Amino acid sequence: MESKRQQKFASLLQQDLAAVFQRDLPHLFPGLPPGISTVRISPDLGVARIYLSALLAGSGEGLLANVQDNSKAIRHALAKRIHKQVRIIPELVFFLDDSAQYAAHMDAVLGTLHIPAETPDAPAEPEAQDAPQRPKLFADEDE
Question: Where is this region: Disordered (predicted)?
Fold first, then answer.
């Protein structure tokens, strides 16, 4: 579980990295820049694990390779933005967020299942003919 400090720092990094991708280094990303889905910070605030979403940016593997190749320039541009707010500029480790592909896969799997629906007039179980009758406790009880 992350502390409040880690959560605040992760939020700061997420906002500023998005600004770096869109405003400071748009030339690194042909087309649309990657989206940042999640940022996780180590307890000492020295390492940031950044999960990139490639929904609109195209190929996920190519995008990840591009970001990893330019991670030094990305970290430098991030340092320019946040150097007065933090003591240590964290190491940036990038990962591809595949939760959207996983959700699409699970949707496809659930779409192929055939689950028969019960009709309201049909009983769930066939009743036995010689089942014992339940005694009436009240006079106005209907069966």
Answer: 117-143
